[in-house]
Structure formats: structure tokens, C-alpha cells
Amino acid sequence: MSGTNDIMEQKREEQRKHSAAQAMNQNLNTNNSDPGENERKRFTLDIHKDLHYELKLQSLKQGKKMYELVEKALKDYFKNP
After folding, report:
1. Phi/psi zone of residue 45: left (φ > 0), alpha (ψ -120 to 50 degrees), beta?
2. Is the CATH number of domain 41-81 1.10.1220?
3. Which residue, of 29, 55, 67, 77, has the greatest Cβ tally within 10 A?
């Protein structure tokens, strides 16, 4: 479990280093993308706690949000069921 805590602390430290200007610039760049690209539907999903832990760990390691990893996994699955 300490590995996860170390990664989370490292991620927090990286976030502290970002300036407000960088964050605003990133948000502006994100808002210029295709409007339909960011359309999402929220739902609740129950998964095994070990899968949730691994998903959270991978999201921290890869610097991505958990939903991004789930979306990619689902897209890959539906392309090649």
C-alpha cells in the first residue's frame, strides 16, 4: 500500500508545481477540441475492490484519469470482442 501512497504523494507534488497560468492554458487548449468529443454519460459501476485499486494505481502511474483508462479499455474491447 505504501507504493500507492508514494505515487499519490509524488502526483500531489507535481500538481503543486504547476502554476495557475499553466492550468489556465491547459484548460483553454482542452476547450478548443471537438465539442462532441467530450460528451459523456455518468453512471455507477460496481467492480471488485482489487480492480478498483489497480485502476487507481495505473491512473496515477500513467498520469491519466480513471475514466480515461476505462474508456480506452472498453473501446479496445468493443473493437476486438
Report:
1. beta
2. yes
3. 55
